[in-house]
């Protein structure tokens, strides 16, 4: 939905990841389990115990040679930027249209990207840029989505964009978004 990214500050806040990180964290903590918060927290911690132990060993190893903040700077920050934020940006670009209210946007949003190799590596590894093809035929293996794209490239209901960064720039230049007047049949 573009409404929560309709002005410069909301858009920049979104691009920082701080808008969606709490929601993502709640989803991870909540998982599919039911019960009290303590039960869910215990389930979360116990299911991730090996990863938590590995991270604690990594922090200890780094802190024994370097300052402790190297862990945050050279381990957590790159993961945050190159995994979490990159995925957030890709998902935003593949689902958004710079129009509010959201009801005025294309309801199907069949959007595919054909980015340059650097953007493909950063935002859409494993052919994730073939978003429309994946949604139309989700059972097609990722390595066959380029073939499917070639087959569907002339289909008029699939919007093909060439750059994630270019789309972000175009979106940024349209800010602030203002609501589009909606046509109501029979209204004067």
3D architecture notes:
By secondary structure, the chain is mainly alpha-helical. It has one domain. Helix content is 56%, strand content 3%. The chain is globular.
Which features would summarize this protein structure in a list?
single chain, 188 residues, mainly alpha, two-stranded parallel sheet, 2 strands, 56% helix, 3% strand
H and E string: HHHHHEHHHEH
What's the main sheet like?
2 strands, parallel
Average residue-wise pLDDT: 87
* Number of helical elements: 9
Residue share in helix: 55-70%
Say how many strands there are.
2
First-residue to last-residue Cα separation: 29 Å
Number of domains: 1
Query: Based on CA inertia axes, which overall geometry fits?
Result: globular
Q: Largest beta sheet: what is the strand line-up?
A: 1-2
Rg on CA atoms, Å: 21 Å
Nutshell version of this structure?
The protein is mainly α and 188 residues long. The protein is built from nine helices and two strands; from the N terminus they run H-H-H-H-H-E-H-H-H-E-H.
Topology overview:
Elements: H1 8-16, H2 21-30, H3 37-47, H4 49-65, H5 69-95, E1 111-113, H6 117-123, H7 131-136, H8 145-152, E2 159-161, H9 164-174
Parallel strand pairs: 1-2
